[in-house]
């Protein structure tokens, strides 16, 4: 599971930055918040 996360994370981050560029500053803040929340959940679920 951890190995898969390490492989997937760069793709997710790239996608997030791409989406943030489209949505603008407000969208990027929202996405960053959601991403941090999901990262914390994944870390807690380990």
From TrEMBL:
TM region positions: 5-23, 29-45
Domain of life (superkingdom): Bacteria
The keyword Transmembrane helix belongs to this UniProt entry's keyword annotation: yes
Keywords associated with the record: Membrane, Transmembrane, Transmembrane helix
Name of this protein: Uncharacterized protein
Gene source species: Ardenticatena maritima
């Amino acid at each position: 599971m951890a190995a898969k996360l390490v492989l997937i994370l760069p793709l997710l981050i790239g996608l997030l930055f791409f989406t943030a560029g489209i949505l603008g500053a407000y969208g990027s803040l929202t996405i960053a918040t959601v991403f941090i929340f999901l990262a914390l959940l994944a870390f807690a679920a380990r």
